[in-house]
Design goal:
Blueprint (H helix, E strand, L loop, with lengths): L4 H5 L6 H4 L1 H17 L8 H20 L5 H15 L2 H11 L3 H28 L5 H22 L4 H6 L3 H11 L10 H9 L14 H8 L1 H27 L7 H22 L5 H21 L5 H29 L2 H29 L7 H15 L17 H19 L8
Helix pairs in contact: 3-5, 3-17, 4-5, 4-6, 4-8, 6-7, 6-17, 7-14, 12-13, 12-17, 13-16, 13-17, 13-18, 14-16, 15-16, 15-18, 16-17, 17-18
Length: 435
């Protein structure tokens, strides 16, 4: 019985490109899935329906992966799994933050990251306890929870009232708001009007949002939106290369692969917890710049530190991954606050695809490094340089901490104008805003 795909199909003898094909196929599927499915949550399907469909696609393709007869079918199924998985995190994050108020929005988003980390922690545990079994068993075990999750979301989770309002489905939005409102808000004749007033949602449907890719088009046409999206996607690319690359390459720094993966997962948990308690105080722009620089510097240090100091190398690598995870968490919350409801899911999906696009290069660099004695430069050295350069683009973005989130492009533009006037009044001169 073969316990891994590498031993079953002799991948180590086929070269780095074929050996990294399944992982790269997965990330390529994530990239394409995000581009194809991204605007469905902003246009026709909504957040909840796309979340359920994507979860089912991912879980079923993962289940069938367990029966792959060769590396080629395996890679195709990994591509489909990535395609379905692409929008799950985006839809879940947007949906959860759009049904709460401003004071809880950032913390609710971080809670999702904490549960993601707990799921990450469960993987090395399952791999360890099934280490004597075929790799196919692990695929079956990991596909079942997503099916259960899809059922729970379908029957127990409400659609975003903000999205319903923007789509002109006012009655459904009001019904949803009534169902999630505090019981104390009931009993008055003006109950519905009070709920709508507190929600701050515009009841006018966006006229341009008429077809599948209108959200992408408006992000492209609006100069301020394009500048924001371009800058945050560049930052996301660098974070993604580090975030997905370090767990793949950490086995090169320690003797135990299970221990290495577990340590990385454990470093992600405190990152999410610290971000949860500090997100309300962290300035988005400066914190992103700090954590990307720290992550890059620590990654480069992994190359400089001699191989005879494995404990120090692992410690620095863990600090690098911790900083990357924190930057990852802040980046997604930051993106939520940069764009209005009508394009939020599309914008966040594109940012996540930039993350995945960075991850596409990670397995190739890791595989290429195994045949070269360069002390980790092709992986950790390149990762560190890329995230440092990409992190500098954060200075092009506006600060969003404590700001209200808008529902339409016009509201976002009006908010930017008000911010410009306030800045001008405070400093006595016209200040051009970061848009």
């Amino acid at each position: 019985m073969q316990t891994s795909t590498v031993s079953e199909w002799d991948l180590s003898c086929l070269g780095p490109v074929i050996a990294g094909l399944p992982t790269s196929s997965f990330f390529s599927g994530c990239l394409l899935g995000g581009l194809v499915l991204a605007t469905l949550a902003d246009s026709s399907l909504g957040r909840k329906n796309l979340l359920v469909i994507s979860c089912l696609m991912m879980s079923l393709s993962a289940f069938f992966t367990a029966f792959s007869p060769n590396i080629w079918i395996y890679s195709v199924l990994r591509f489909i799994t990535g395609f379905g998985r692409a929008t799950i995190g985006t839809c879940a994050l947007v949906l959860s933050t759009e049904i709460v108020g401003k004071s809880r929005r950032d913390k609710v988003g971080i809670i999702g990251f904490i549960f993601f980390t707990l799921g990450f922690l469960s993987l090395p545990a399952m791999a360890y306890f099934t280490r004597g079994s075929s790799w196919r068993v692990l695929y079956v075990l990991t596909s079942v929870p997503a099916v259960i999750y899809s059922v729970i979301v379908h029957f127990m989770v409400h659609e975003s009232p903000r999205w319903l309002m923007v789509q002109g489905r006012k009655e459904e939005a009001i019904t949803t708001l009534r169902s999630i409102a505090s019981p104390d808000s009931y009993g008055s004749d003006n109950n519905v009007q009070l709920i709508i007033s507190l929600s701050g949602i515009s009841i006018e449907m966006e006229q341009w949002n008429a077809d599948l890719y209108s959200a992408i088009k408006i992000l492209w046409d609006k100069k301020w939106a394009f500048r924001r999206l371009s800058a945050v996607m560049v930052v996301s690319f660098g974070v993604g290369m580090m975030y997905y690359g370090i767990p793949l390459g950490v086995g090169n720094l320690a003797s135990s692969l299970y221990l290495s993966v577990t340590l990385n997962a454990l470093s992600e948990l405190p990152s999410s917890l610290i971000t949860y308690f500090l997100i309300g105080r962290l300035k988005r722009r400066s914190s992103m710049l700090f954590f990307t620089m720290l992550s890059g510097i620590c990654s480069i240090m992994c190359v400089i530190i001699h191989e005879g100091q494995p404990v120090l190398r692992i410690g620095v690598e863990l600090l690098s991954f911790f900083s990357t995870c924190t930057a990852f968490d802040v980046l997604l919350i930051y993106t939520l606050e940069l764009f209005p409801t009508c394009v939020r899911n599309s914008a966040l999906s594109m940012v996540r695809q930039a993350l995945v696009f960075g991850g596409v290069f990670s397995p190739i660099l890791i595989a290429a490094e195994r045949g070269v004695d360069d002390n980790g430069f092709l992986s950790y050295g390149v990762f560190g340089l890329v995230i440092c350069v990409c992190g500098l683009f954060t200075v092009c973005l506006p600060e969003t901490r404590g700001e209200i989130i808008c529902d339409t492009m016009d509201e976002e533009e009006e908010k930017a104008k008000i911010s410009t006037i306030k800045a001008s009044d405070n400093k006595g001169a016209l200040v051009v805003p970061h848009v």
